Structure formats: C-alpha cells, structure tokens
Amino acid sequence: VFAQIDTAARDPAPRLFLDLDPAAGDQGQRQRAGLQAGDTARVQLHVEGGGQVSGWRVVLDYDSARLRLAADGFQPGDFLLGLVWRVAAGEDGRVEVAGTVTIGAAAGAGDGFLGTVAFDVVDVLGRGTAITATEIELQRADGSSHREHLLSAARLASWEVITAVQEGPPPPPETPALLQ
Fold first, then answer.
1. Could you please report the per-residue DSSP string of 62-109?
2. Widest CA span of the chain, in angstroms?
3. How many other C-beta atoms are found inside a 10 Å radius of the C-beta of residue 120?
4. Segment 153-168, tens digit of pLDDT
5. What gap in Å lies between CA 173 and CA 178, rounded to an integer?
C-alpha cells in the first residue's frame, strides 16, 4: 500500500511593518518624537510575504485619549490596484482598515505598501504612546484566507527618549510640573 504525503510547505506567515517615515518604501522608522497636540502622525502599512492577495484587513490599537483617527484617516497604497477600501474606527482605541480589489483587477503579490493611516495627536504624548498592529488577514487570490495575530508597533512621543551613560551623580527625579 502506497500513500502520498503532501510535502508542500505551508505558506509562511505574512509580516506587517509600521513605518513612520513618509518617504516611499519601508525605511524601518518605528519611532518618532517631537509630536505635539494638533500634529498628525502618518503610519505606513507594509506587508512582507503576502503571496497572491486580492484583499486584506489590518487591526490597529492605539491610545484614544492621546490619538484620534484623522479626517483623512486612510490613503491606499499601491499593493492592490483598483482597491475598494473601508475604515471602521471606534472610540475604544481600535481601528480596522480593509481593502479588496474590484472585479477584474489584478491581485497583489509578495511584498507591498498597503496604505497610510493618519492619526491626529489630541494630547501631549510625553515619553510616548504606541500604535500597534494586532491582526492581519489576507484574502488570497484563490479564495482562501490567512489570518495572523501579530504584534507590530510604532512609537510616538513628544520628547526624545535618550539612553546614555552619565558620569557624576544621578539627575534629580522628574516632577509632574516638568513634564507638562
């Protein structure tokens, strides 16, 4: 008796990167300082290892006391042409961005730029807050889908956080009045 064993490797899990550099492509900028109330932070979504994709969905978590989805909350990237997209944001600090190709449009393949999500800074960020991608779901061109729970984050801050070796006595502790 012979049995055929399926030796095809499972698709590797897609990876999602958040980039805070507005230049095209993923520059790997995962932190940005100097943001104040009234500023807008734009977060690019880049996928790696997506395979043949006809649609996608990304869930982002953020601190809704410090950030708010901007009025122009999403701008589509070039990974999927003919993209129809939607943004669903709640008051709970979670936003879901999704896109799918229109009938007859070509599927995306491999790595690409999904789009940019914009957040308005509504309160002082101090030493920082994070925008975290917690889930990505890819709709494959063959009709199957792949959902991956992940943790990819970008950190936003009002001040630079510098780690350095310092000679002499330690600095005095920070007081709340200095942080405002």
1. --TTTEEEEEEEEEE-SSSTTEEEEEEE-TTSEEEEEEEEPTTPPPEE
2. 79
3. 16
4. 999 988 765 444 444 4
5. 10
**Using CA atoms in the order 151, 26, 116, 93, what is the torsion angle rounded to 10 degrees?**
20
d(CA 113, CA 108): 10
Question: Is there a contact between 66 and 129 (Cβ–Cβ < 8 Å)?
Answer: yes
pLDDT, averaged across the chain: 81
List pLDDT tens digits, range 52-111.
Answer: 888 999 999 999 999 999 998 999 999 888 889 899 887 789 999 999 987 766 677 889
Q: How many CA atoms, within 13 angstroms, populate the side-chain half-sphere of residue 97?
A: 21
Q: Which of 21, 141, 133 is nearest to 80 (CA)?
A: 141
pLDDT over 60 (residue 4): no
Closest alpha carbon to 66 in 135, 157, 133, 151: 157
Rg (CA), the chain: 20
Query: Whose structure tokens read 């991608």?
Result: 133
